[in-house]
């Protein structure tokens, strides 16, 4: 398979490479954030907007899910990349009816996500009629009728797929899942299926709740933090302040990553004089430059070393009381890791045994250990087992449900965790469906629905002549975010109808079904006024804190509806005006939705009152709150996980796809990856200099990247053409390229076991001189 990606609007030959940075943030970060604001919003709006970001009376940053502090908040509770996210939404640029009249869909489909996203905010509902060349304006009422008609044509509700991206508020998410289930399907894939699904799977099995067990305060007071498979300097910059604080309290930090990411090495806090003028804070005490996918082996080895140390000095290493009183499966786990094969560990991790021993000593010395992780852990074939293995190590030392200790999966989208709490889940727990049925006195579908990969697999191979299929997306950019771009695009093109509820133009609008709709919506930053007056919404951060978010800016256009309003109106159009659920009341006053959330969603009792508290409230978390573990065994589960070394054939590399410093997922802010020293271009592939030599390629060379995926006795190939090699200090045998440019290389069927997450961080590739 070959696919020429659209890239005429970026001149990749402008690439400039300099030495990677060894520190993050500082003055350049502040300047970039202000500059981006001024460029998109102008000076007055920049100051006003950034002042409201993450303040109690303002809006939640649409950037990442890292929590704001409880109690005191600094005046500027945001980061460079949060400011970029806000500027992107609060931009004064507009994509209006004239824009669509001037640009055909064929022309727009040749543009990159970078160009599409930078055209501005969508202002009016638009429709692309069958066979038409251009989107044309349509009224809201007609849009909903059109969707209702297409959904009515389906043989079964299961022929419709309802995607969600993680910016959707709790109120909109709750209403959306209620609508979709009332319509009759659990086909509710979401971005989480490509993101932290592995964390949810592993933590549910082992701890009984698919969420982290620490608070921000715990991070501040941990004495050892392992930051594994995560690049906080770019993706969760406010986390650096928390790490700095922990360091100030004497914590040690271990970073586990194939790349020496700047944010992990040193942090210059722009809010402190020392950060502005001085050297900043050295964050990492031990940098383990691991091979891609080696983390399972690393944590198994750490468990082995802890057990060995306990054998030497019984009663000094393990938390015997915790293991006895709260855990299950210890003996089997201990026997399994006892038989560790060090050669395998060294091959899998690329780390020296002595370094792993150093980390084990740090674990033994620690009284309060936290393990943080993100996509470097969740997007591999053995992700779920890897996370279980991290849990094993924490359980050995009783590091769950103790202040300053626990698991910390660092979420991506600002409300991805809340969306799941509200029922955006293709595999809803029975108890949740029971609660919905009780509350609304309507039957809910019980059969599990499609997640992202399953939805695409079901759509694969269809043609536009096949019957039906409606794809509806509440936010996000499904086409660019999903794996296997060519397969994904064909799948979307085979739909009878594609609908995108969006703030900005993206590739999912120009790769479309027979009929396509764009429904423009309010962003987080904007005032949301309904019949009963100004509304607020609620969100849940990565540490289960739920709080209000109030938009303050004037909407990008008078025509925009909120997501709540779009879902409520859609439900009325599809389910009929006589439907027993009072959709209209929900739209008039979001308190009415919250009253229902309070009665349906566990832990949300008295929701309307509690979300009005200045810092909101924290959802219950049994492992953290009381060391109780609602698992199948009623205890925290140790697990024995098979160690398998990812072997790469001769002449190949293991490729990870990651984010540059200048993007938010598929939204490309700019062409610089400041910390990694890359400027003006995105089609680059980072390769270790020794591998360049071994493979006979040189720094700066133009190559095609070809992925190899065995299917039976054949090897399927996928090609992404025209990448520039950047010789870079990544781990040996590993390579890196940016998402979404590298997505055509990720085979749809290459997924994490159990969580079905695309393996975006381990793809076997070879490089060929570009032809
Ligand atoms: N500015 C900005 N902020 C964001 C986002 C954004 O795009 N831009 N995206 C948001 C979203 S949705 C998410 S999910 C998060 C993503 O946050 P991250 O997970 O930090 O994002 P990635 O860029 O995918 O980085 C993965 C990191 O894991 C490392 N890694 C890759 N494979 C392995 C491995 O096998 N082992 C180990 N130990 N490390 C590995 C990579 O080198 C890299 O440092 O950020 C959120 N915040
Ligand atoms: N190869 C590879 N693929 C990946 C990943 C990877 O690391 N490598 N990461 C995966 C991860 S972690 C994730 S989370 C997914 C992300 O997948 P998505 O969440 O689907 O993608 P985004 O790029 O975040 O979506 C951006 C679009 O959301 C819309 N938008 C922004 N704000 C709002 C809003 O407030 N409301 C509405 N309705 N729309 C809004 C805009 O139109 C914008 O164009 O991608 C996954 N794909
Ligand atoms: Mo994500």
TrEMBL record:
GO terms for molecular function: 4 iron, 4 sulfur cluster binding; formate dehydrogenase (NAD+) activity; molybdenum ion binding; molybdopterin cofactor binding. InterPro entries: Asp_de-COase-like_dom_sf, MopB_CT_YdeP, MoPterin_dinucl-bd_dom, Mopterin_OxRdtase, Mopterin_OxRdtse_a_bac, Prok_molybdopt-oxidoreductase, YdeP_MopB. Its cofactor is [4Fe-4S] cluster; Mo-bis(molybdopterin guanine dinucleotide). Its EC number is 1.1.99.33. GO terms for cellular component: membrane. Coiled coil: none annotated. It comes from the Bacteria. Belongs to the prokaryotic molybdopterin-containing oxidoreductase family. NCBIfam families: Fdhalpha-like (TIGR01701). This is Formate dehydrogenase H. It comes from Actinoalloteichus hoggarensis. The lineage of its organism: Bacteria, Bacillati, Actinomycetota, Actinomycetes, Pseudonocardiales.
């Amino acid at each position: 398979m070959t696919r020429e990606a659209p890239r005429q609007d970026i001149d990749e030959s402008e690439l400039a490479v300099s030495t990677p940075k060894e520190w993050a943030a500082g003055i350049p970060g502040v300047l970039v954030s202000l500059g981006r604001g001024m460029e998109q919003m102008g000076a007055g709006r920049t100051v006003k907007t950034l002042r409201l970001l993450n303040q109690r009376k303002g809006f939640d940053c649409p950037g990442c899910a890292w929590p704001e502090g409880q109690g005191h908040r600094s005046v500027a509770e945001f980061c460079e990349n949060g400011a970029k996210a806000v500027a992107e939404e609060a931009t004064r640029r507009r994509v209006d009816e004239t824009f669509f009249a001037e640009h055909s869909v064929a022309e727009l489909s040749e543009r990159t996500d970078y160009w599409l996203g930078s055209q501005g905010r969508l202002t009016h509902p638009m429709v692309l009629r069958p066979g038409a060349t251009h989107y044309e304006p349509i009224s809201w009422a007609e849009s909903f009728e059109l969707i209702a008609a297409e959904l009515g044509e389906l043989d079964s509700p299961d022929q419709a797929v309802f995607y969600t991206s993680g910016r959707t508020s709790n109120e909109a998410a709750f209403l959306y899942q209620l609508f979709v289930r009332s319509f009759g399907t659990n086909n509710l894939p979401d971005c989480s299926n490509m993101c932290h699904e592995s964390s949810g799977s592993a933590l549910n099995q082992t701890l009984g709740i698919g969420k982290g067990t620490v608070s921000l305060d715990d991070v501040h007071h941990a004495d050892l933090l392992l930051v594994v498979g995560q690049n906080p300097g770019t993706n969760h910059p406010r986390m650096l302040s928390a790490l700095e604080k922990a360091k100030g309290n004497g914590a040690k930090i271990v970073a586990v990553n194939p790349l020496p990411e700047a944010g992990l090495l040193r942090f210059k806090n722009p809010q402190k004089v020392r950060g502005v003028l001085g050297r900043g804070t050295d964050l990492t005490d031990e940098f383990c430059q691991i091979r891609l996918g080696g983390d399972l082996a690393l944590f198994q080895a750490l468990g082995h070393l802890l057990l060995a140390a306990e054998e030497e000095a019984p009663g000094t290493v393990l938390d015997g009381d915790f293991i006895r009183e709260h855990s299950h499966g210890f003996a089997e786990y201990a026997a399994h890791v006892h038989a560790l094969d060090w050669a395998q560990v060294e091959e899998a991790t690329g780390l020296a045994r002595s370094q792993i021993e150093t980390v084990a000593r740090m674990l033994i010395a620690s009284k309060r250990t936290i393990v943080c992780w993100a996509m470097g852990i969740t997007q591999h074939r053995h992700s779920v087992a890897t996370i279980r293995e991290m849990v094993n190590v924490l359980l050995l030392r009783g590091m769950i449900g103790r202040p300053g200790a626990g698991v910390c999966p660092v979420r991506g989208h600002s409300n991805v965790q809340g969306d799941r709490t509200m029922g955006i889940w293709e595999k809803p727990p029975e108890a949740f469906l029971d609660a919905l049925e009780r509350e609304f006195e309507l039957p809910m579908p019980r059969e599990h629905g499609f997640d992202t990969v399953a939805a695409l697999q079901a759509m694969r191979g269809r043609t536009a002549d096949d019957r039906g299929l409606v794809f509806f997306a509440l936010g996000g950019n499904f086409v660019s975010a999903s794996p296997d771009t060519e397969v994904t695009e064909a799948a979307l093109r085979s739909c009878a109808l594609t609908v995108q509820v969006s703030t900005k133009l993206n590739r999912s609008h120009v790769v479309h079904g027979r009929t396509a709709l764009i429904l423009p919506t309010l962003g987080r930053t904007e005032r949301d006024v309904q019949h009963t007056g100004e509304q607020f919404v609620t969100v849940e951060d990565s540490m289960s804190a739920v709080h209000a978010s109030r938009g303050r800016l004037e909407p990008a256009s008078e025509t925009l509806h909120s997501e709540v309003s779009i879902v409520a109106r859609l439900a009325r159009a599809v389910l009929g005006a006589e439907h027993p659920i009072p959709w209209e009341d929900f739209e008039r006053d979001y308190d009415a939705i919250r009253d229902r959330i309070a009665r349906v969603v566990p832990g949300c009792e008295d929701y309307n009152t509690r979300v009005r508290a200045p810092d909101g409230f924290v959802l219950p978390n049994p492992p953290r709150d009381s060391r109780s573990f609602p698992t199948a065994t009623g205890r925290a589960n140790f697990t024995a996980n098979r160690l398998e070394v990812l072997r790469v054939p001769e002449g190949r590399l293991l490729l990870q796809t990651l984010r540059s410093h200048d993007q938010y997922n598929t939204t490309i802010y700019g062409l610089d990856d400041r910390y990694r020293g890359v400027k003006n271009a995105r089609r680059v592939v980072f390769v270790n200099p020794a591998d360049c030599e071994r493979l006979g390629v040189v720094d700066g060379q133009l190559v095609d990247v070809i992925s190899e995926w065995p299917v039976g006795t054949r090897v399927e190939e996928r090609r992404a053409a025209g990448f520039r090699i950047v010789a870079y200090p990544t781990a040996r045998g590993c390579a890196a390229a940016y998402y979404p440019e590298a997505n055509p290389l990720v085979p749809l069927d290459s997924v994490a076991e159990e969580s079905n997450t695309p393996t975006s961080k381990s793809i076997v590739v070879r490089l060929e001189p570009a032809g």
